[in-house]
Structure to design on (631 residues):
């Protein structure tokens, strides 16, 4: 019976500790105003992408020639495009494409980058091979590499994801590797060797958790960059092909009528700027939030 | 404490002619060829008897930590043998070595970097059990509670993170991690030198108590003569990768034979002010192990160096029962 009581006692201790930790977490989180703002923008845009299509009343593909290039009004809040489609609807559907591609690219390159970075840091021979490949990929400017890949693969949403993942994986792998190299030299890793732990256990249980925080910070920046790159690809006609809406190709269509219909460039541009701003604020804030040593003042 | 009885027994661990050289390479790594070798450990021979504490002392750079780490094969040896349970650890396969690590554990110097900052204490202490045994989750927890209590911590610490502990407490956790799998030998690599003096004595007393309770054998590596005098049964004095003198605690402190040992011991501050004390001050620095002196390693700084010392490497001689010295002055 005594043992049962002991276990209960330990459980209550655990619960109260968890509560304390949670309180501290929220207090620190809300102390950073810019990060909260970035987080808010990001959540709002995410919600728009998720449930926005259910709220708008127009069809993003239906053309009404009579209503081409109408200025913003009560009926069309953000105006209409050159085929008479409602711009708000197009931008909301575009959010789904842009944010979706950004998210998937971020996930794929984070996971690949984590695996590559961890194994490269642990096995010296693998390090030379993997890092030289990464160097090669990083030597080519990101957008140029993406365009070249898109030219080779052909324009489609899947190929945009593949091309951008190839562009951003080396970034993440570098970040993970550099922090893993630091962790690897710490005594607790040597202690795990002395315990007889296997390489897999050391890599995934001991090195990986300590590289997650820089990885998360980098992932938010990759997310922002992926959105810009996708927009740039679509703008250049190498990404999402026309009738499908994407912020980039709405912008491109707007470029042709920029003097007649300012709303065609301003609103999709604003959407891109807002999402990137939100993600950068979030990333900057997370960096300070996760690393208590860095001072909050030095954000760019 | 009971080495008299152990004299009839075989040693539990025997280190024979252990060598560890680190290659020195140029700016192109190994591609540019090896420029030289740092002879960190050069011909170390020692025996550990069951239940004793063997103190390995020497100044920094003398190779004492490397000796400890090489015995566990945390770095690959250059030569020599380590016999444990009739098996040469240096010949064992990677898998066998991992199994052996259950019996030979290690406690590290730095209590701050030796615990994973992202893991709770409970997880840290359960991990060795997961690696080496297949006991159930509940039993693992029981054994962790048990060991926490043994090292003077409580089960309320089970869910805490390492950063919530002081240095002394962390060192207790490091000790608990080494002991939770019931090892036979614990290699203590300067376990107290990063701690406050008051905490040092606590941890040392704990080490002694645990040794009695759990029948442990310690290889105690330190540069602190007072600590080694307090805790050791036998002492080996290292200089530049060699053991220059070895003997029982009483013998070696009563009559240190090797000039280096004499100099080392004379540098220890003493509490009785009246007593006459002769301080032997050595000239110069410890020579570089990259280019060690010929003959006796110590001849460059030895106040009694003979012509012979520069040419011939002194052999280990037994001067008294269990008291060995490697010096040409005792022929």
């Amino acid at each position: 019976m005594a043992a049962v009581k002991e276990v209960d006692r330990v459980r209550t201790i655990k619960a109260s500790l968890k509560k304390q930790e949670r309180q501290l977490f929220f207090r620190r989180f809300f102390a950073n105003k810019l990060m909260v703002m970035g987080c808010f923008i990001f959540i709002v845009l995410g919600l728009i992408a998720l449930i926005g299509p259910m709220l708008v009343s127009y069809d993003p593909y239906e053309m009404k020639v009579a209503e081409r290039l109408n200025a913003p009004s009560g009926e069309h809040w953000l105006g209409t495009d050159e085929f008479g489609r409602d711009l708000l609807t197009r931008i909301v559907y575009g959010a789904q494409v842009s944010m979706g591609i950004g998210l998937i690219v971020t996930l794929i390159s984070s996971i690949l980058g984590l695996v590559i970075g961890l194994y490269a840091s642990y096995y010296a021979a693998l390090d030379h091979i993997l890092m030289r490949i990464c160097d090669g990929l990083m030597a080519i400017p990101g957008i140029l590499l993406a365009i070249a890949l898109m030219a080779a693969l052909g324009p489609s949403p899947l190929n945009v994801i593949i091309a951008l993942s190839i562009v951003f994986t080396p970034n993440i792998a570098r970040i993970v590797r550099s922090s893993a190299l630091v962790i690897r030299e710490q005594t607790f890793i040597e202690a795990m060797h002395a315990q007889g732990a296997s390489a897999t256990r050391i890599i995934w249980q001991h090195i990986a958790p300590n590289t997650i925080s820089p990885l998360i910070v980098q992932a938010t920046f990759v997310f922002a960059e992926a959105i810009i790159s996708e927009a740039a690809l679509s703008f250049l006609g190498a990404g999402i092909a026309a009738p499908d809406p994407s912020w980039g190709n709405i912008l491109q269509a707007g470029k042709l009528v920029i003097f007649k219909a300012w709303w065609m460039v301003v609103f999709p541009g604003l959407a891109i700027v807002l999402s990137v701003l939100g993600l950068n604020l979030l990333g900057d804030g997370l960096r300070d939030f996760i690393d208590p040593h860095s001072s909050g003042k030095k954000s760019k | 404490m009971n080495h008299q009885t152990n004299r009839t027994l075989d040693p539990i661990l025997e280190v024979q002619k252990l060598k560890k050289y680190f290659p020195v390479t140029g700016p192109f790594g190994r591609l540019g060829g090896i420029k030289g070798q740092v002879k960190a450990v050069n011909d170390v021979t020692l025996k550990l008897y069951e239940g004793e504490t063997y103190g390995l002392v020497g100044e920094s750079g003398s190779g004492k930590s490397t000796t400890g780490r090489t015995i566990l094969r945390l770095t690959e040896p250059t030569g020599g043998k380590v016999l444990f349970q009739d098996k040469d650890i240096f010949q064992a396969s990677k898998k066998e070595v991992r199994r052996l690590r259950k019996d030979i554990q290690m406690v590290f110097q730095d209590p701050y970097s030796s615990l994973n900052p992202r893991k709770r204490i409970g997880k840290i202490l359960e991990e060795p059990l997961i690696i080496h045994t297949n006991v159930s989750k509940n039993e693992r927890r029981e054994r962790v509670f048990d060991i926490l209590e043994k090292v003077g911590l409580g089960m309320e610490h089970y869910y805490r993170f390492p950063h919530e502990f002081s240095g002394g407490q962390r060192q207790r956790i490091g000790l608990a991690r080494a002991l939770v799998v019931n090892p036979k030998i614990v290699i203590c690599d300067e376990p107290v030198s990063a701690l406050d003096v008051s905490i040092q004595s606590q941890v040392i007393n704990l080490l002694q108590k645990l040794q009695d309770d759990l029948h442990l054998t310690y290889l105690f590596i330190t540069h602190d003569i007072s600590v080694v005098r307090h805790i050791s049964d036998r002492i080996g004095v290292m200089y530049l990768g060699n053991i220059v003198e070895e003997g029982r605690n009483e013998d070696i402190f009563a009559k240190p034979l090797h000039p280096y040992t004499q100099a080392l011991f004379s540098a220890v501050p003493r509490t009785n002010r009246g007593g006459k004390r002769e301080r032997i001050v050595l000239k110069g620095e410890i020579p570089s192990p990259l280019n060690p002196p010929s003959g006796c390693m110590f001849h460059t700084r030895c106040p009694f160096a003979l012509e012979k010392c520069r040419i011939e490497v002194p052999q280990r001689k037994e001067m008294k029962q269990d008291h060995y010295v490697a010096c040409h002055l005792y022929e």
